[in-house]
Design brief:
The complex is a heterodimer of chains A (215) and B (511). With 215 residues, chain A is α/β, with parallel strands linked by helices. Chain A is built from 6 helices and 10 strands. Among the domains of chain B are: 169 residues, Beta-Lactamase, CATH 3.30.450.20; 172 residues, Heat Shock Protein 90 (2-Layer Sandwich), CATH 3.30.565.10. The chains are: A alpha/beta (215), B alpha+beta (511).
């Protein structure tokens, strides 16, 4: 019996070890999987950003000279990393693309104050507001409002707050909503074909609170 | 049946039909081809427009990977029944969204992407169109349509063409049947008329068809020809009648002539018989007169008075002359009544014999010369009569001699143009005056008194008659006071002909 007991203990130990190993492997794999899907999401987002340039028309005066590049400003903690690199090689509307980063690492998360150089941001044709800017987005939107700058966000309520396009998180793939009123305010013409793709289009005052939560 | 054997009206109809159907089929095919080409073009253009719209419509959806939107967009094609497939491929050629036509036939998916443009295959029209966003080709739109619209039009055009062809050919047939007579009827009438004329030989028929152009000319020429034939025919009939009349007239005349000839020869025969009988019977009493006259002179010789003796001698002389004349007459009449058969007569021999017998006394008396400078030919004739002829001629030549001149008679010969032989008897006698030569061969024609030259006046007439019986001619050429040449022609004897020919042939062969 003792032998059996001894054997039992061993068996249990083996099982435990095995389970432990499996758990570790699974955890690592899960971690990897999460990392992978996040990367995939941002690769698609990067492509979308590029395509937004094509699907949206800026007023002529706001577009730089032929020789000057079109600028996209990344405001906040950059989630793309090297994913945006290929973007720099592409052209849109016959111009090169330059990515500019506006991030203040010292900015407290809770503060509503903008600590980045708003003047430089205003010079960009597209501004991507990262999720780190959840508190500051209203201030930012307020500052940019009326200027021909396409604001793209990834914060819940960004479009309702007056941002033009907002990525809505989705398990399958990124989708976006469009605030047509904001686009109109910014003098931007958004292709109707883009509107068809959008998950939600805000084009009347009444729609503002529909998809997201105000505040 | 060969084409050339078909009747002309069927020929015309057939030709018109052949040409018309050729033209109709050709134009039908051309029309068909043209419409087909146009329809294909139109179909392609329509598809191109559709593809333009679609590709424009889905570029952003493709850019944003919105499959839902793309399929919604492609659903726009639902209204176009002929479109069997549409697909949207990204720039890598990976299918992104697609649409199937009402039949949901999955076999219609193109195997590969082709450069932008439209492509006709047996069953489909396929349009490839790049999807462009901001001057960048981000994908390809493929639309494939079946060719039903084309087939529909093709079918109706084909049906229309066939109907036009049938109706057109029908009309053509009716029209050609109707109008072929314009060409064929004058020709047919002409042909009927020609047949009728050739059967009835009635050249008074005319083709009364009014037609212009070559056929009109043909008919005019035909009528003209008929006129000429008719005129000639009539002239022939006239001439024939005239000839008939003439022949009848001649037959009549000939009949008369024959009758006359018969009558004549009968009376001639009677006359000859009479003359012969008469002369024969006349000689009997004459001989008695002569014989008894001579007996009287002998017996009464010395007793007779001189005058009576002269009278008796005159009587005997007269009776002798009459006897001679009768003898001559008998000879004359015997030329035809007692004529012998013809054979070869050697003139040389005849002349020699005459010289030795009949004429020897006279030749000796007058010391005359009868010569043949060259050998005379042999002639075809009655030997007795030829001998008589030669004797008369030579005797004549000897007789009419100038006083105190020795006669010289030459007998010669020559060939005539018509293949006969001419015998000449030349003398150096008194000759004949030109105006007297004409009647010299007539019976009892005498140029001189019986005191000057003796004679009966029948000798030359006998000569003429003999020559004529032998089919020759007789004549005289003379210079008054110098001599005469009497000549006659006769046939060469056949043997000599043969001889001559042999001689000529041998001469030729020698050469």
């Amino acid at each position: 019996m003792a032998v059996i007991a001894e054997n039992k203990k061993q068996l249990v130990a083996i099982c435990i070890y095995t389970l432990l190993a499996m758990a570790i492997v699974t955890a690592v794999a899960a971690e990897d999987n999460q990392q992978y899907s996040r990367r995939r999401e941002y690769r698609i987002k990067a492509e979308f950003l590029y395509n937004f340039f094509k699907a949206v028309e800026w007023p002529k005066e706001s577009i730089p000279e032929q020789s000057e590049p079109i600028a996209i400003g990344i405001v906040g903690r950059d989630p793309f990393g090297d994913i945006l690199k290929p973007l720099k090689k592409k052209t849109v509307k016959g111009r090169k693309i330059v990515v500019r980063y506006f991030d203040d690492p010292n900015q407290p998360e809770d503060s509503n104050e903008l600590t980045v150089d708003i003047h430089e941001i205003k010079k960009c044709q597209m501004v991507y507001v990262c999720s780190s800017q959840q508190k500051q987005m209203k201030e930012l939107i307020g500052q940019i409002k009326g200027l021909p700058v396409l604001t793209v966000g990834e914060i819940k309520g960004f479009a309702d707050a007056g941002g033009v396009i907002n990525f809505v998180s989705n398990k399958e793939k990124p989708i976006f909503e469009i605030n047509m009123l904001a686009a109109k305010d910014s003098n931007l013409k958004v292709s109707s074909k883009l509107l068809r793709i959008a998950s939600r289009v805000i084009n009347a005052k009444g729609n503002w609170g529909k998809g997201g939560t105000d505040k | 049946m060969k084409f050339s054997e078909i009747k002309i009206k069927h020929k015309i109809v057939l030709l018109v039909m052949l040409i018309s159907s050729f033209v109709l089929v050709l134009s039908g095919a051309a029309l068909f081809g043209f419409i087909n080409y146009n329809m294909k073009n139109r179909l392609a253009q329509e598809m191109l427009v559709d593809s333009e719209v679609l590709s424009n419509n889905c570029n952003i959806a493709l850019a944003f990977n919105s499959k839902d939107d793309i399929e919604k967009t492609l659903d726009f094609l639902r209204s176009k029944k002929s479109i069997v497939y549409a697909g949207i491929y990204d720039s890598q050629g990976v299918l992104f969204g697609r649409y199937f036509g009402p039949d949901q036939d999955f076999s219609v998916v193109p195997a590969e992407l082709k450069p932008e443009g439209y492509y006709f295959t047996d069953d489909y029209l396929t349009v490839y169109k790049g999807i462009v966003l901001d001057e960048e080709i981000i994908g390809t739109l493929v639309i494939r349509s079946n060719l039903d619209p084309l087939y529909r039009v093709t079918k109706s055009v084909m049906a229309g063409t066939v109907v036009i062809l049938i109706v057109g050919l029908g009309l053509c047939y009716l029209l050609s049947i109707e109008f072929q007579s314009i060409i064929s009827s004058p020709i047919l009438k002409l042909s009927v008329a020609a047949k009728k004329i050739s059967q009835s030989k009635d050249f008074s028929v005319r083709v009364l068809v009014h037609s212009g152009g070559e056929i009109g000319e043909l008919i005019d020429s035909f009528n003209h020809m008929l006129e000429q034939i008719q005129a000639r025919d009539e002239a022939l009939i006239d001439a024939n009648q005239t000839l008939k009349d003439e022949v009848a007239q001649r037959m009549k005349t000939e009949q008369g002539l024959i009758e006359y000839q018969e009558k004549l020869s009968k009376s001639n025969q009677e006359l000859q018989d009479f003359a012969y009988v008469a002369s024969h019977d006349l000689r009997e009493p004459l001989r008695k007169i002569i014989a008894f006259g001579e007996i009287l002179i002998e017996t009464l010789g010395p007793k007779l008075e001189e005058d009576d003796k002269d009278s008796l001698e005159l009587m005997i002389d007269g009776a002798n002359r009459l006897n001679n004349m009768i003898e001559a007459l008998l000879t004359y009449s015997r030329v035809t009544t007692r004529g012998g058969n013809f054979e070869s007569v050697d003139i040389n021999k005849v002349v020699e014999e005459l010289k030795n017998f009949e004429l020897s006394v006279r030749i000796e008396e007058t010391n005359a010369e009868v010569v043949m400078p060259e050998t005379l030919p042999c002639i075809e004739g009655d030997p007795t009569q030829i001998r008589q002829l030669m004797q008369n001629l030579i005797a004549n030549a000897l007789k009419y001699q100038k006083k105190d001149t020795i006669s010289k008679v030459e007998i010669g010969s020559s060939d005539t143009k018509d293949g006969m032989v001419r015998i000449e008897v030349r003398d150096n006698g008194i000759g004949i005056k030109e105006n007297q030569a004409g009647g010299i061969f007539a019976m009892f024609k005498r140029l001189h008194s019986k005191q000057e030259y003796e004679g009966t006046g029948i000798g030359l007439a006998v000569c003429k008659k003999i020559v004529e019986r032998h089919g020759g001619e007789i004549g005289v050429e003379s210079t008054y006071g110098e001599g005469s040449t009497f000549w006659f022609t006769a046939s060469k004897c056949r043997d000599e002909n043969v001889k001559e020919i042999i001689v000529t042939a041998s001469q030729e062969s020698r050469e």
